[in-house]
Amino acid sequence: MEERGRAEMSARAATVRKGKQRMSPEQAAGGREIAAAEAIAVIELVNYQRGAVVSRTIVKHAVGTVTLFAFDEGEGLSEHTAAFDALAHVLEGEAEIVISGKAIRTKAGEAVLMPAQQPHALKAITRFKMMLTMIRA
Q: What span, in angstroms and rounded, lies between the C-alpha atoms of 135 and 125?
């Protein structure tokens, strides 16, 4: 019994705290900021800041990344291109995404594919949060 208690305490000591999410050292080394095989509320992993765009990469590997963003109303990302396709999934609020001059108004629950090598920009119509998945292939 005493040995089991020590093992449990040791396992708990090996857990690293990241915000509200717990992560083991192995997960951190594996390119993840979130625990694997657990349900998480991704919308709570990034917070708004007045007059700013906040980002947090939660998965980072050589073949792709998943990054959360929180945009204050009126804030945005200026036009740029990316070497790979990117999927912007709006989690909360409303945004305008412009791809090669085409404006797309999108809201929570919707996603927009931004093709590689095409200029794109984003602007918050209201405060909004999105999850950006970039696949390097």
A: 27
